[in-house]
Amino acid sequence: MAKSSTFRATTWDPLLIISQIVTLQSLCYLSAALITLIVDGLTGADITLDNLLNFREYRGDTMFGWTLATGWLTNSVFGVFILLHIVERAKLCLDFTITFHFFHFLFTSMYSQQIPSHFMWWALNIISCCLMSIGGEWMCMRKEMTPIQLGGGASGEASSSRSKSDAKRRKSSSPTYEMLPLEEESQ
């Protein structure tokens, strides 16, 4: 019987994928709602769901439309951090970002009872999709590339003397790595 690893399992897990999609969608809409609430409060506009889901509100000829657009782009920055904590895989960020924006398209179409027809809405969502995808991939790659700190498994006096020499070495050199250089290990 083959031993299966649970770290970064690549098996098909539909429950995990669906829960990640629902969580991403919920958190992105929560942050978008909070940002829209702040925008509404600052501009003195009425607090309605139209400001979040009606494509007609995102217009390039009014200051309120530009403010909503700025809020939606700010939400895409929050989406990067949501991707970092929910998805955690750089190669999956594009998939989850496109899924989020596809569902946003569906929700907007159902709420507005029309397929979005304003150029500003389409441009805004394409830019938001690019920002979330590229930013999420970059942040996830940085997280994936952090060195893994290995804990010492030795016990007793050898462990304490090694930890004292490791502490001296860490103080003398700024970067710390999980492995010792070869020349120090042979001594």
TrEMBL record:
PANTHER family: PROTEIN SYS1 HOMOLOG (PTHR12952:SF0), SYS1 (PTHR12952). It is a multi-pass membrane protein. The keyword tRNA processing does not apply. Belongs to the SYS1 family. InterPro entries: Integral_membrane_SYS1-rel. It holds the Pfam family SYS1. Residues 150-187 are annotated as: Disordered. This is Protein SYS1 homolog. It comes from the Eukaryota. The chain crosses the membrane at residues 21-43, 63-85, 92-113, 119-140. It is found in: Golgi apparatus membrane. Keywords: Golgi apparatus, Membrane, Protein transport, Transmembrane, Transmembrane helix, Transport. Its main location: Golgi. It comes from Basidiobolus ranarum.
